[in-house]
């Protein structure tokens, strides 16, 4: 069971955490909504939950709850720029199909 | 493929529910758009990584429009069709434009509602339409950066912008197809960018030195509300003047005359600007321009620019006086505008306010960043309790009442949005219409206030004076825009007006109006008292004359009649005097003298009402 992230993702997470001024890392998760059933969660973390698995990726810590981990195993978090748009992207090997926009998915 | 942003704990949006909001700094020289991504506010660059968009629009005869850097290239070749600094014309009337300077290359034509338009080869273009083009370019940039349509924008305006100028800005946004979440004053936005709104209470000075304008604003923050205490500045002083001072020095050093051609002048100015910017980093800089080689050090630079900085500091001290503050009562100083990068400016500002100014956010972007933070909250991307930022209205709003007096409905520095109603009544018997004159200002007399709008409430059912009940409601929305309605309560007839005044006030005028209201406070009070007594005297005169004409001969003997006539004449004469106590005394006398007459009229009318009815009928009636 492992989750990784690219250097670009790590850099941006560190920057956003520094700007925010508090927080211990980033939470990756999955919740059941959306047009294809599941959608991603990407949030700042102020308090670790006892059931969280923690991944150390360089300067940034990733927190994942056990239920989400089942869907996310093997995922690489990336930070990409597409023209003027920029943001984070989950490269998740478990995904079978996505809705057109990729905001929700199916396993 | 959608790209995700980091949310606050528990705030991850549902798919397709992401809200896109931006802050827009619609500037005189340059404009910017910013947004909050993953909790960090940043300005958005164009495809060539340029964050600033010059506020310039160029119109061609074939309707082809270019904006920003592209438009700027036309400025030299096609000045008439290249609109720059349109912000200076927003919400202004044709008469105001004349005072803005004759050196403008544009041809103005009177447009709708007295607002002037620019005559270009693509037709007549209003300042609002040109601003809309700039907004549209920024919105397009934001939509491509955020990958979807915007839910709304916060647009910044100078603190001294009045109703007309704010409305013009809002109209431009509507024309550009962007929803305005709120108009925010520029100094407030800068304070928000530094998180000063989170800090509780205090007085904040915002020192804004741009390329061509200087503004100083003093804000008081208390319980999440920013109140503008004073504004001041110079609309013709900025970084360009610093460059000019350096260029002048170069000319003297190089022994160059004043007969430089435009090309040479441009070279000289750009060399001056480069040297100025280099001296922010190093102690001295080598210059090589128009065949002259030399060096400029910080000390020389300081002596060149000090007189200009002194001018800004004088305006700062004036604003402090206006706000009745000492420099040591300032809790924070925020620097805005590219020219505040100069170390000398920072030093001198620190000396004046006895406080190190805040400089760590890029001074060109700080206003847009504050607006983006506010937009993010308003669109609901942040937990609700974080910030509810309010603005206040800069001048009182009210209406004209009898005697040419200004009745204030909403007082200056009231937080917005706000709605207030007041009941008025008719002055004459059988009055069926009422003129409502909406005013802005602090003075007591209508002639000393600014007229915003006029409208009429018609169809009031004829009643005796004072019986109709007319409720006038003033509503100011979160953007500072005014809506006035009047309703007669017994009949329900209604009329209203949205205030879109045809001309504007500048910061100097607002300051002037405020100052005058202080210096004339005593006179105004006297005048108000006088007008009030005059109105009362007129009312009494009308009522009593009418009553005398109707029943005087029947109910009074000759002596009594004569006595009242004399008293009325006296009243009429005294009314013209300027002594309100004297008028009040006469009103008292006339009222007393006519008491008996009034009682007899009452008796007579009761007798008349009862005549021909039996006691029985009256009992039943009770």
TrEMBL record, chain A:
Cofactor(s) needed for function: Fe cation
Domain Core: 1-103
Keyword flag Glycoprotein: no
A cellular-component GO term for this protein: cytosol
MF-aspect GO terms: 2 iron, 2 sulfur cluster binding; metal ion binding
Keywords, ordered alphabetically: Iron, Metal-binding
Gene Ontology BP annotations: iron-sulfur cluster assembly
Signal peptide positions (record): none
Annotated InterPro entries: ATAP, ATAP_core_dom, Fe-S_cluster_asmbl/transfer, FeS_cluster_insertion_CS, HesB-like_dom_sf, IscA_proteobact
Homology family: Belongs to the HesB/IscA family.
Protein name (record): Iron-binding protein IscA
Organism, as annotated: Porticoccus litoralis
Upper lineage: Bacteria, Pseudomonadati, Pseudomonadota, Gammaproteobacteria, Cellvibrionales
Gene: iscA
UniProtKB/TrEMBL annotation, chain B:
CDD domains noted in UniProt: ASKHA_NBD_HSP70_HscA
Keywords: ATP-binding, Chaperone, Hydrolase, Nucleotide-binding
InterPro entries, alphabetized: ATPase_NBD (IPR043129), Heat_shock_70_CS (IPR018181), HscA_NBD (IPR042039), HSP70_C_sf (IPR029048), HSP70_peptide-bd_sf (IPR029047), Hsp_70_fam (IPR013126), ISC_FeS_clus_asmbl_HscA (IPR010236)
Keyword Transmembrane helix: no
GO biological process annotation, one example: iron-sulfur cluster assembly
Gene Ontology terms for molecular function: ATP binding; ATP hydrolysis activity; ATP-dependent protein folding chaperone; unfolded protein binding
Entry coiled-coil feature ranges: none
Entries under NCBIfam families matching the protein: HscA, PRK05183.1
Function: Chaperone involved in the maturation of iron-sulfur cluster-containing proteins. Has a low intrinsic ATPase activity which is markedly stimulated by HscB.
Protein family (similarity comment): Belongs to the heat shock protein 70 family.
Listed name of the protein: Chaperone protein HscA homolog
Organism: Porticoccus litoralis
Organism ancestry: Bacteria, Pseudomonadati, Pseudomonadota, Gammaproteobacteria, Cellvibrionales
